[in-house]
Amino acid sequence: MAGGLIMAIESHHYSFNGRLADYVGGIDGAGSVSAWGMTALHDGRHAALLTPGDELSFSVGVEASGFTLSLWMMPKSVGCSVIRVGDSHRLTIDESSRLTLQVGDDVAVSDESLAIGYHHHIAVKYDDTISKVFLDGVVIIEHEGAFLPGAGVVYLAGSGYEGEVIDLRVFNYSLPDDNVQQLSVSVDFGELAASSSTEGLSHYYPDFPLSGPVSDEKGSAPGNIHGNLSPISRNSGNAVEFTGAQYIGFPALVPAKSDFTITAFVNVPAGISGNANDTDDVLLHQYGSDGVGLVLYTMTSYGGASSQSRLWASDFGEILVGPDLRGAGWANIAIVREGNNFKLYLNGELYADSAADVSIGTYGLYIGQYTNSRERYLRAGFDDLAIYNRALNTDELQGIYSTGGAVFSPPFPYRIHGAVRGDAPPVHGWNPSPLPVPNPRAIGVSGQSAVIGVPHQRRHPAHFDQIDGSGANGTATGGVSDPARMGVIAGTVLDIQAQPVSRRVRVHERATGRIVRETWSDADGKYRFTDLDPRRAFYVMAFDHTLQQNAVVSDNVHSEVEDAP
């Protein structure tokens, strides 16, 4: 991530490169380590190789008012301790490979299992109210009460743990959830960007075609382009340009009276000018007789005397006056409403604020044109429109500006070969070891992947095997590296008369709902899926495209490894 704003600084950092040194806080750890070695998680990274009986201690003085522990590890055993403080506060792996949190006499058990022998990121945080446990960036346990009882010694492993311990970071406050997700992407993630949280993100348009419908990647409010937009370069990728003859119509996306944030990137050319009748270039106009029209101008002429950007409300007047954006290049502009207070941000910095008690009309929203006057078309580059149902703070808006878009796009933690320019062929991720990539639960319960391309810069996403055996590793057969993971799920689809039929069949990972395989059964109703990890649970669904029969589901299915011929 270029130019990321450092927001979160760890108090202690242990990278286990042959010793238990604290490279931030200066408080070295202690304990027995059976061996030191290199980990396959990432090239050049070391690990403590622990066997049952090894236990590490760290006098990090964690505060009960708020903290975060971030740990990269690869467990090879079950029924063992992971983190301990005293005798009554523990995080363990039970005999079913599930993480279990003990807080005093209370015990909370996750619904999902770790993949033993896989690299995982585990985080525990407390925010003065609730303790949370994260597995590979996804919250799997929430429990009221403090996990760590004030300052003390934190113990790792012990009580039967066998495996690698690779990286431990301790923060003396509770990190935002999206920062924890960033830490789960790569063990070498050195900077945590100012929050580009998706919390409250109600509508998101990172990619605009040159014509036709526009997809809402977060909500359910697609837009429609009137006219033909032009391509324009932005950050080695492509955005779109309004040339004074196009607009995009949306449903009303901005709430009438409640808090909101609107953010987008614009590039207003230098030298555009005109007269008061036709050069009030409109970036956004939401209207309706049930309230005032809210208008955001990228420039206003006022008889040629001014070229500043403005936020305006009909029947109210000017709310905010912004800068002259002409010739400034790509800029992030954001409008924030909190109560009756409106704020205008430019590139993550507060530029102006003012009070306005207005109720905004809710009939519809136009981008690029004033609804009732076709003379006020926009002339500017445009990209990455996001609308939140809350007021973002300065840190969050700085994060959007520094990362180049409303949704944080973390880097792929392994090597990438091939170009990453927007006009290049798709690149491919490469796993340098026979072990699966980190974050094997990459597509979590949110339905979003933590390891993605960079959509706001129009770069092609990397192709890789998110779960060893997902069939997405770029090979012709989706083959896996470990024969023990080459499981098969096979069966026959029958119709309501118990006759074999050809139907669409999908295999979903049970823990997340992720589709890992899809095919059509043949004319005899038979289907077969290969290279599925037997340690993971799936459910299989067959669909009747003729709509004569409901979908048939086989739940909690495990693949089986067939005997070699």
Question: Which outline best applies?
Answer: globular
Poorly predicted parts: 1-8, 408-480
Helical content stands at under 10%
Percentage beta strand: 35-45%
The tally of helices reads 2
Q: Return the CATH topology of the largest domain.
A: Jelly Rolls
Question: What is the CATH-assigned architecture of the largest domain?
Answer: Sandwich
Biggest β-sheet strands, sense, barrel? 8 strands, antiparallel
**What's the number of extended β-strand segments?**
40
Round the mean pLDDT to the nearest integer and report it: 76
Q: In angstroms, what is the radius of gyration? A: 27 Å
Cα end-to-end separation: 48 Å
What does this structure look like?
There is one protein chain. The protein is mainly beta and 565 residues long. It folds into three domains: 12-183, Jelly Rolls; 201-403, Jelly Rolls; 483-561, Immunoglobulins (Immunoglobulin-like), CATH 2.60.40. Helices cover 3% and strands 39% of the residues. The chain contains two helices and 40 strands. The strands form seven sheets. Strands 1, 3, 4, 6, 11, 12, 13 and 15 form an eight-stranded antiparallel beta sheet that branches. Strands 16, 19, 20, 22, 27, 28, 29 and 31 form an eight-stranded antiparallel beta sheet that branches. The longest helix is centred in the last third of the chain and has 10 residues, at 394-403. The protein is globular, with a radius of gyration of 27 Å. The protein starts with 11 loop residues before the first strand and ends with a strand. Residues 1-8 and 408-480 have low confidence and may be disordered.
